[in-house]
Specification:
The protein has about 200 residues and is α+β, with helices and mostly antiparallel strands. The chain has six helices and nine strands; from the N terminus they run E-H-E-E-E-E-H-E-E-E-E-H-H-H-H. It is globular, with a radius of gyration of 17 Å.
Length: about 200
Amino acid sequence: MTDVVFAYGSNMDPAQLAKEGIEASRREAAVLPGHRLVWNYRSMRWGGGAANAEEAAGEDLSGVALFVGKGALERLDRKEGHPYFYRRAPRIRLATGEQVQAWCYLVVPRRLRPEPVWPTREYLDTVIRGARAHELPQAHVRRLEGTPTAPYSGDELPLSISREEILSSFGKGLSEAQEEEHRRDQAAQPSKKDKGTDE
């Protein structure tokens, strides 16, 4: 069985997918109707902002339709931290005009930031490389190129984050020593309501 995933961030880049061991049998430029690209999520994995999509009437978000098998979809889920950080949610339109049902990773509401969280140069270059590789509209590429960047900041751990969320976020297991260190850090932190911190 083949699933379709709409990629609009780092998953557009073939090299990034290959690095994660994710294979797509077919890739095609596509749009997600009624959505726009926003930077309101901080990724521990990338040490900065990561792409998100939000509803926006009358706008179309350019991206790439990835046709993947079950194994690749499961690896994408782990990479995106589904369901702790990104949720799979709608219907997309391929460059051919054909409409297909697709998964799209959207940041879970409690992880959203009220202020912009700009990406690192590395992350943004990855997104731009993916957009160019699939010949997305030049207007979209120019908007990406004009996105501000921020220095890598990988030392911020969110409050109220579970062991499962950490494992999912990094796509791999942690050593017992790392887990114990995190538990100690959590115990030392003041209790506060999670306001949407951290692919």
